[in-house]
Amino acid sequence: MHVGVLRPQTNTFRMVLDLSGLWEFRLDPDDTGKAEGWTDGIPDGRLIAVPGSWNEQLAGARDALGPAWYETSFELPRAWPARTFVRFGSADYLAEVFLNGERLGEHEGGQLPFAFDLGLNLRPGLNRLVVRVDRRLLPDRVPPGGLPPSPETGWERDFNPQTSFDFFPYAGLQRAVQICGVPEGGLDRIAVATALAGRGALVSASVEHGGDALRLRLGDVVSDGEELRLTDARLWSPADPHLEPLVVELERAGEIVDRYLLPIGLRSVEVEGDRLLLNGRPLRLRGFGRHEDFPVSGRGVPSAVTVSDLELLRWTGANSFRTAHYPHAEEALDLADRYGLLVVAETPAVGLFFHEPGLERRQEIALRLLEELIERDRNRPSVIAWSVANEPASAQPGAGQALRELLERARALDPSRPATFASNTPDDPVLEHCDVIALNRYFGWYELPGRIEEAASRLAADLDAIHERHRKPILLTEMGADAIPGTHADPAEMWSEEYQAALLDELLRVAEERPFVCGAHVWTLCDFKTGQAEHRPAGLNFKGVFTRDRRPKLAAWHLRERWKS
Ligand code: ADA
Fold it and tell me: Which of 478, 500, 548 to probe ligand 1 with, by most ligand atoms within 8 A of CB?
């Protein structure tokens, strides 16, 4: 059942009830809630806002990773469609869902939507929804955690909480929870493919449904069946992010029984030699790796913050971002589609390693989460590539096979976009299996600290050598330096705003001079919270060109100067 990914909407046939608001909540550090019957309601709860991470909302809960319990109640209006689902925008990390005491199912993986059919468990009057969320860090989860640094994990930094990744493991119901009413035998899944043909385009919609006949409408063009031909197509591009309102209608016994509106964009993405092409023309991505992170709400960023982040990104003149290191909120993709921002969409597979413990299970989950991401975002014109992992330990034995499997799965599920992963492994043996080569490089920071000129020459030599070997487009997915806001130095010195700005100026120049570099993403848009570690002052990663409260550092002005002029 793909209802988890056909995003809810309200129209004549469908209805959404948003459960955002204050829920009952209780931490369960001893994991006794099930035995004590909390599946039917939490005793002595406290109130919490949903959506939002729990860590900074509640006093004393910062490092609590669960399990924890959420509870709310809802009642459906009399006029309500035939079938009812509950849809979670995300639950970080493992959620078990109960309606009126009955277990509906579970979902593992922090930033992807899922849904359950409420079916026979739904009652007239009040219904009680209870969710158990477990965000403990374990080696067989994606991303993995709970292990000390070691050569086996490929992770060298000791963080508290013990993550194998460089961001805080915020927990909870971080996106909207919605009750969705849909018609019986309605539209279940819509996967759109577009092919440009001369001045026209062919739109094909693969639709799962329980009706007799389909109709597609795009403005005045109407077609019975799963294909629609446009003779004169206006393409989607960053310069003209034109969206077409595709309407999918379902008929049964001659009557319309369901309808879904899906804005689509007509465009092509291809790799040709060492170039990445959009609508047949070479692309140069400029932008950022972005995190979803904000004080108090944690990883559950309010829509206003999403809007503001993408405004800031556009303010710098950027045309692109990577959803590091997990799928971002659907609103972020709405904005990208609308504004013509190009997105490298990443799965939650950060910090994969290819040893035991947990190897087989990690790989299975990584594959499933990749499928769920592609299902969710495949109809987005803004998404131009899939990143199947960030900084996997790709030199380990077994890494090649596992990463190839992920890349091949992405291509099999969606042949229309290149697949890659962000690599920080020198001489990475797996790069040859990527369509676009994506590199995270910290010359001038972790390597060659304080040496801007040498960092630039090292990057130049590295890019040229990798290009020589692979002859594929190269995207610099990360580079940067921490700058503590308000720290200044002349001459530029590490941790100062001047150093960050000067290093980025030099590294970007090196990237721009090379036509085979299809883009560069600065790490990162805004400062963000991490676990505690000796190299993370105040528990923050300061590589943002904006502060955590979204004020520009010197580097942001430099980027604006470079990218806007
Ligand atoms: C890695 C990683 C990022 C980031 C960066 C850093 O390359 O991909 O998550 O935090 O390091 O700042 O150290």
Answer: 478
Residue nearest to atom 4 of ligand 1 (CA): 166
Q: How far is the CA of 166 from the centre of ligand 1 (A)?
A: 6
Task: Using pLDDT thresholds of 50, 70 and 90, give the confidence band for residue 398.
Answer: very high
Query: What span, in angstroms and rounded, lies between the C-alpha atoms of 171 and 161?
Result: 12
CA 394 from chain center: how many Å?
22
Query: Is residue 461 within 8 Å of residue 514, measured between CB atoms?
Result: no
- Paired tokens of 502: 């000067």
Q: Which of 264, 233, 234, 268 is nearest to 248 (CA)?
A: 264
Of residues 427, 474, 327, 337, the one with CA closest to residue 386: 327
CA 531–ligand 1 middle distance (angstroms): 13
What is the tens place of the pLDDT at every residue in 233-286?
A: 999 999 999 999 999 999 999 999 999 999 999 999 999 999 999 999 999 999
- In testing the pocket of ligand 1, which one of 541, 542, 545, 548 has its CB within 8 Å of the most ligand atoms? 541
Closest CA to 101 of 133, 123, 85: 123
Q: Which residues line ligand 1 (CB under 6 A)?
A: 166, 325, 390-391, 424, 440, 478, 523, 541, 543
CA Rg value for the chain: 24
User: What is the pLDDT, as a whole number, of residue 4?
Assistant: 57
What are the pLDDT digits (tens) for 58-115?
Answer: 999 999 998 999 999 999 999 999 999 999 999 999 999 999 999 999 999 999 999 9
Q: Determine which residue's CA is closest to atom 11 belonging to ligand 1.
A: 166
Residue 398 to residue 379: CA distance in whole angstroms? 33
Give the E-state strand segments of 465-556 in sequence order: 474-478, 517-523, 528-529, 540-541
Residue whose CA lies nearest to ligand 1 atom number 6: 166
Pocket test for ligand 1, best of 166, 299, 528 (most atoms within 8 A of CB): 166
Question: Exactly one of 478, 497, 498, 506 is catalytic; which is it?
Answer: 478
Rounded Cα–Cα distance for residues 258 and 560 (Å): 46
pLDDT at 2 over 80: no
- CA 33–ligand 1 middle distance (angstroms): 36
Tell me the average pLDDT of the chain.
96
Specify the pLDDT at position 565. 79
Which pLDDT belongs to residue 209? Answer: 87
Report, as an integer, the average pLDDT of 182-194: 94
331, 346, 375, 391: the catalytic one is: 391
Whether the pLDDT of residue 421 is over 50: the answer is yes
To the query of whether residue 478 is one of the catalytic residues in this protein, the response is yes
**What average pLDDT does this structure show over 427-445?**
98
Residues 35, 40, 45, CA angle at the centre, nearest 5°? 85
Sheet holding 244-252, edge to edge: 221-224, 213-218, 244-252, 255-264
